Amino acid sequence: MRAEAVIETVVNAGGELILSGDRIRYKIPKNYPGKEHILDQLREHKDEVLQILRKREEIPAMPPGVLLIRWEPKPAPLLLARYAVVTDVVRFISITLLELEAALAGKRWQAGHWSVRELVDRLEQCGVYVQIERVEPAGRNDLRSN
After folding, report:
1. Which of 6, 18, 69, 111 could disulfide-link 25, Cβ–Cβ 3.0 to 4.6 Å?
2. CA-to-CA distance for 36 and 93, rounded, in angstroms?
3. pLDDT band at residue 140 using 50, 70 and 90 as cut-offs
4. What's the mean pLDDT when you consider all of the chain?
5. Count of Cβ atoms closer than 10 Å to residue 100 Cβ
């Protein structure tokens, strides 16, 4: 079993993995069948799981015109207000930031047809708080009359 599969098995079991320095803290329901097998796999792939969990905690680059106010990703799975469940919170945040960049550039279709406010709200629901600075739409400063 690969490290990603071990993480997925824990999440599917209703559990949670928490990075704590060089240790992995886990929460798995007591009566879950196969709990010992999951823990054996977790021990076997500890270094790989640690690496994946650390990568997930990295803060992605903010789009131009976006100032990060607070970074506190909530644990997965996460239920969003529009009935969406997020199982990889940091990846969801990264994609939402790309959509936010597109929305700020006026490329609404690349933003999944989400408005800037909706994208900021989705980030806040994940524990990431940003502030939008004044941004001129692309190309507006290039149109000068002679």
Report:
1. 18
2. 32
3. very low
4. 84
5. 24
For 3-56, the fitting CATH number among 1.10.150, 2.30.30, 1.10.530, 1.10.10 is: 1.10.10
3-state secondary structure the chain: CCHHHHHHHHHHCCCEEEEECCEEEEECCCCCCCHHHHHHHHHHCHHHHHHHHHHHHCCCCCCCCEEEEEECCCCCCEEECCCEEECCHHHHHHHHHHHHHHHHCCCCCCCCCCCHHHHHHHHHHCCEEEEECCCCCCCHHHCCCC
Domain boundaries, the chain: 3-56, 66-141
Distances (CA, A) of 81 to 27, 69, 87, 146: 25, 21, 15, 50
Output the pLDDT for position 10.
86
Average pLDDT over residues 48-53: 89
In whole angstroms, give the CA distance from residue 117 to residue 101.
12
Mean pLDDT of 105-134: 92
Q: Name the residue among 39, 51, 37 with its Cα closest to residue 4.
A: 51
- Give CA–CA dist 49/4, Å, rounded: 7
